[in-house]
Write a structure and sequence with these properties.
alpha/beta, 4 helices, 8 strands, 30% helix, Nucleoside_phosphorylase_d
């Protein structure tokens, strides 16, 4: 059995309520809610794989509006005691997800301005979201393989939340098509 995970119901609107071979989990947005919900789910039942679907902002202008596998996650909203941005005082700077793809920067706020993007881009990420680092870290603690698929919903620039609201349903359909093609359900 696999666990299909999304932060928001809106990211799953194109998915049937029951997907053969998958349990479903909606965690809520942000790193704390993602950590809490996924920890509870993995503590309650053993899964063969966690499959995360969701939206992300593209901070790399060369990325098209498509679905991307995530290879690694970093945090863009933490600073260690020496002032190094992207480095938490006790967590790894990067969580590897075991796939080829793009790196995503996770933080607890919706990135929607050029100034924030200019701070995040040098950390080495091409996408931004609010949960992937937490999902990856939790799955690693439980020794469960994880796959994260992200559909580009916006460009993380001014008024990106308006773009996200307008595209989240289309992103859900892209993600559903990817799950159908790659998992046969």
């Amino acid at each position: 059995m696999k666990l299909l995970v999304a932060a928001l119901e809106a990211e799953l609107v194109a998915f049937p309520a029951d997907l053969p071979g998958f349990d479903r989990l909606v965690t809520g947005p942000g790193k704390l809610q993602a950590t809490y919900a996924l920890t509870r789910a993995l503590d309650a039942r053993a899964y063969d794989e966690v499959v995360v679907v969701g939206t992300a902002g593209a901070i790399d202008a060369t990325l098209e509006a498509a679905v991307y596998d995530i290879e690694a996650a970093i945090q863009h909203d933490v600073t260690d005691i020496d002032g190094k941005v992207g480095q938490h005082v006790s967590l790894p700077p990067r969580v590897e997800l075991g796939r080829d793809g793009v790196t995503i920067a996770t933080g607890d706020h919706f990135v929607d301005d050029a100034e924030a993007v200019s701070v995040i881009r040098p950390l080495g990420a091409r996408l931004v979201d609010m949960e992937t680092y937490a999902y990856g870290w939790v799955a690693e603690q439980f020794g469960v393989p994880i796959r994260v698929l992200k559909a580009v919903s916006d460009r993380a620039q001014d008024d990106a939340i308006t773009d996200w609201r307008a595209t989240v349903t289309a992103c859900s359909h892209q993600l559903r098509d990817t799950i159908r093609a790659e998992y046969g359900v």
